[in-house]
Write a structure and sequence with these properties.
With 642 residues, this protein is of the alpha/beta class. The chain is built from 19 helices and 17 strands. The longest helix is centred in the middle third of the chain and has 16 residues.
């Protein structure tokens, strides 16, 4: 798709910044995609321009096959103050022109960009901020300054606070430019070529890893004949072509003074406290060989955000520029992580029953289920709903259940706690591939699901509205915390079964699975099968998870459940709009006493039938024969009613 977009300009009027006032401040920006989609902003880095004329092209992450897809997201690219497009020393009139331009902070940029989003573009909520280098530092500031306005942020080769070593590095190119014979204290009347060329030569050596230089990466596979050619054409020309010297110095000052803990909403420049208060989910991606945004700094910062941020180190010799679109391999690595991670050899496990020439019904697993236990609704007897004599039934295992790709069966480097987060959308895409590419199913008659399988059933008609006819859908921090806090879980790096953690998980989960009346009636005794609540907990809940489940699988699958929101797929969080657009006929069957469980939005396409049971959430499973008979009769009638 075309990436042509005009640069637009927002006029703020008088705008206060860290070093004073900009009388008629301007923020330059471009937009890509449909404003109805979830909004992602992508600010410039040092050296970048919105029009790609700078040293670093700015559209390298935008495109149908890129990390930021304009067909899925509404993407707003912002030019930082001092980059020559937004207000800068080079384009600001007297009396704040050139060396008189005031100092600008990251917080000033965030406030200006927030104004553009809310007052000009009408963005009520921001899905994500993605940034590289200075853009990555800006992403941290967004998360700290507007905690309830955004969901996520991605910092690529950036940091929350500019480190002392980073500041010292920046003194080098700055000194080379400022001390040059043609810079004239910023009062030059023509381009200070000596100063800019010296700046570029000092900077260049820091931008890549030492191994990259050792491997003669600067030759770019024959594009350049020597290091001098590379520095002259890539670095000197890159700054001389598109950059003003005062802009370079002022923007560098913004970078050098970066510290997210210094923003007004936080206290006493306490970095740990500031980072710990961030609500948005963060993806922090330093490069292993970055010489100034070192990965150790990112490790220290992420340690203050154990529940909200994830650290992924880019394994590259390209140093800082690994994050800036410099090579295809690193671009692909970053894309896979930004778009949700990657499974190198993903596997979907499934079973089939019946004749593929008959109408196809999909029956995905729920939390705690395996394919072997997914047969309670499948059979040729009169009581069974999913009859293989009438339907082609495909039971399919969700990712993280231990049969499809999961933390427990995925090899290095995505094994155990390193397994990427999985969404219901990911599962639906994988299942669609199995049906269409492997089984040759051109049209799906119905998706039937219980619990997580029921949530899965909502995603199918939203994602593939013309592919199926019907769908049937028949508390989580507590058990997760119990597992992770146990003495044998070891942050997911356990070498033997973490019994304490799994037993604690089972005990915390159990009281949410049934209705209060069920407990009051001592349903846990199962008509004499168990002699006490303790026996029931130990044999039914602890034993089943210990026998069949891996702890990392349990947490990864729980994360899929916990992050469910079908409206994110296409309607930017508008659930009413999303469900109102569903075409498939739906049968929604919650239990009256379910603690965990939307039909008014489905208007004329869905029917609500409440299971009148004291069994709570498990009423939709196989625990009670009366409940099983009740909902199977309704599902059977729904399937047979054309």
């Amino acid at each position: 798709m075309s990436l042509e977009a005009a640069t637009q300009y927002y006029h703020h009027g008088r705008f206060r910044v860290a070093g004073g006032i900009i009388p008629n401040a301007i923020t330059a920006y471009r937009t890509y995609g449909d404003p109805k989609n979830p909004c992602i902003i992508f600010p410039t880095c040092y050296g970048a321009k919105l029009d790609d004329s700078g040293l670093v092209p700015h559209t390298y992450m935008i495109g149908k096959d890129k990390a930021l897809n304009p067909e899925t997201y509404y993407i707003v690219t912002f030019a930082l103050f001092s980059n020559g497009e937004s207000s800068s020393p080079s384009n600001t009139p007297f009396p704040y022109n050139g060396p008189y331009f005031p100092a600008v902070s990251y917080a000033d940029n965030v406030r200006a960009q927030y104004t553009v989003l809310t007052k000009k573009l009408g963005i009520d909520h921001l899905y994500c901020v993605v940034g590289f280098s200075m853009g990555g530092q800006l992403a941290y500031h967004w998360a700290a300054m507007y905690p309830d306005y955004m969901n996520k942020y991605v910092s690529i080769c950036g940091s929350a606070r500019t480190s002392p070593h980073n500041k010292a590095f920046l003194e080098g190119p700055k000194a080379a430019l400022v001390a040059s014979k043609d810079f004239n204290n910023g009062h030059y009347t023509e381009t200070p070529q000596h100063g800019i060329r010296a700046f570029a030569r000092v900077y260049c050596a820091w931008a890549y890893g030492q191994t990259w230089f050792r491997n003669h990466g600067y030759l770019h596979d024959g594009k350049y004949t020597s290091m001098n050619d590379f520095i002259r054409e890539d670095w000197e020309a890159g700054y001389l072509r598109a950059w003003d010297a005062n802009d370079m110095i002022t923007l560098l000052h913004t970078w050098q003074s970066g510290d997210v803990s210094s923003v007004e909403v936080n206290d006493n420049a306490d970095l740990a406290k500031c980072l710990g208060s961030i609500k948005a989910k963060g993806l922090i991606m330093p490069c292993k060989t970055d010489l100034y945004f070192a990965p150790e700094d990112s490790e220290n910062e992420v340690a203050n955000m154990p529940e909200t941020a994830r650290l992924v180190v880019i394994p590259s010799v390209w140093g800082h520029f690994a994050g800036g679109g410099s090579n295809a391999a690193d671009d692909e690595f970053i894309k896979n992580e930004v778009t949700g991670g990657v499974l190198p050899n993903a596997v979907t496990a499934y079973r089939t029953y019946g004749d593929p020439k008959t109408p196809c019904i999909l029956f995905p697993t729920c939390y705690g289920a395996k394919l072997a236990s997914q047969t309670y609704m499948v059979g040729t007897d009169r009581a069974s709903v999913l009859n293989p004599d009438k339907y082609y039934i495909v039971t399919i295992a969700l990712f993280c259940d231990g049969e499809s790709s999961s933390p427990s069966n995925t090899p290095f480097p995505y094994n155990g706690p390193y397994f990427p987060a999985i969404s219901y959308e990911d599962n639906a895409r994988a299942q669609y591939a199995v049906l269409t590419k492997q089984l040759g199913i051109e049209h799906l008659y119905c998706v039937v699901g219980f619990s997580m399988g029921g949530q899965m059933a909502y995603y199918w008609p939203v994602m593939y509205p013309d592919y199926l006819d019907k769908q049937v859908d028949t508390f989580l921090e507590g058990p997760k915390a119990a597992m992770k806090a146990s003495k044998d879980f070891e942050d997911g790096h356990y070498k033997s079964v973490p019994e304490h953690g799994i037993r604690a998980f089972g005990r915390v989960y159990c009281p949410w699975a049934y209705g209060q009346t069920w407990f009051r009636n001592k349903g846990y005794l199962y008509n004499g099968m168990y002699s006490s609540l303790e026996d029931f907990l130990r044999e039914e809940w602890e034993a089943d998870y210990l026998k069949y489940w891996d702890a990392n699988d349990m947490l990864a699958l729980l994360n899929t459940w916990q992050t469910a929101d079908v409206s994110i797929v296409k309607d930017g969080g508008d659930l009413e709009k999303c469900l109102g657009a569903v075409k498939a006929k739906g049968l929604i069957m919650p239990c009256k006493t379910d603690f965990e469980i939307e039909v008014s939005y489905l208007k004329d396409t869905a029917k609500l039938v409440v299971i009148d049971s004291v069994w709570g959430h498990v009423a939709g499973g196989v625990s009670c024969s009366d409940d099983l008979a009740f909902y199977q009769s309704h599902v059977r009638a729904f399937l047979e009613n054309e």
